[in-house]
Structures are given as structure tokens and as C-alpha cells.
């Protein structure tokens, strides 16, 4: 039997940085446990935040990622024209383009089929962002 669900997951406001949200997502996507084989597609509805899969064991990775992206997309670059929303806004848009706004994760035997050291991150690129909305679409075959 085919299984389809879709919901919007609200992530509370977070500070700038990379935030592990794997369990938060798992707890809020209806039907993962009923899915034998399928795909979970996650899409963040914002232009200044991203979704990424990366290392979930060592928290130094999150800080290193943040510092690296701050070098790639610095604040106050003299060539930015879009500056009305603050000095963190244009760099946030650039980071969102570089990292991406969606993920597709396989589902296997009722669980996310992530690697042992992988986790889902919300990459928040603004200093004082509000809550973030993620559209979660699950499709697959239902477990018998």
C-alpha cells in the first residue's frame, strides 16, 4: 500500500549557527514508523536558512562550519547592494544558496536511513531570525 503524508514543521527561533534537528524532525513527521521503504523530502520555506546533513557526533564540526561560511560570505562586503535588512542578510542569502534549502532522505524499515555519524541540521544564517517552517513530504510503501 502506498503511503503519502505532508505536514509543515515549525522550528522555534534559533541563534545563528548549525543546529542538530534530527530528533525534532523524526518526532513530528507522521508516518515514518509505518514506512517500509520510501523518501522523506524536507524543504525550508526561507531564503536565509538552510538544511544540511553532516557530522552529528562532534559539536566542533558545527562551529567549524559556521566559521568557514562566515569567511565565504562575509558581512559588509563593499560590493553588496542588498543591505536594507541588516549586515547579516545578504550573507545569509549567499549561504542559503551555497548550502541549499531541501533534503531528500531515504526511509528504510520505519527509520531515516542516515549514516551512523549523520544528522539533519538547520543552518540558521541570521543573527535574530524568527521561527522557521519546513514542509515535510513522506512517500513510500507501508509496512505490512
Strand order of the largest sheet: 1-8-3-5-6
Helix percentage: 10-25%
- Our count of helices gives 3
How does the overall form come out from the CA principal axes?
elongated
What is the C-alpha radius of gyration, as a whole number of Å? Answer: 16 Å
Total DSSP E strands: 8
Low-confidence stretches: none
Class based on secondary structure composition and strand pairing: alpha+beta
| SSE series | EEHEEHHEEEE
Q: How far apart are the termini?
A: 9 Å
β-strand percent reads 35-45%
Please state the average pLDDT score. Answer: 96
Q: Mind summarizing the main beta sheet?
A: 5 strands, antiparallel
Structure description:
By secondary structure, this protein is an alpha+beta fold. Helix content is about 20%, strand content about 40%. The strands form two sheets. A five-stranded antiparallel sheet has the order 1-8-3-5-6, covered by helices on one side. It has a three-stranded antiparallel sheet with strand order 2-7-4, with helices on both faces. The longest helix is centred in the middle third of the chain and has 13 residues. The termini are close together.
Summed up, what is this model?
The chain has about 140 residues and is of the alpha+beta class. It has helices at about 20-30, 60-70, 90-100; strands spanning about 1-10, 15-20, 35-45, 50-55, 100-110, 110, 120-125, 130-140.
Short descriptors:
144 residues; alpha+beta; five-stranded antiparallel β-sheet; three-stranded antiparallel β-sheet; 22% helix; elongated
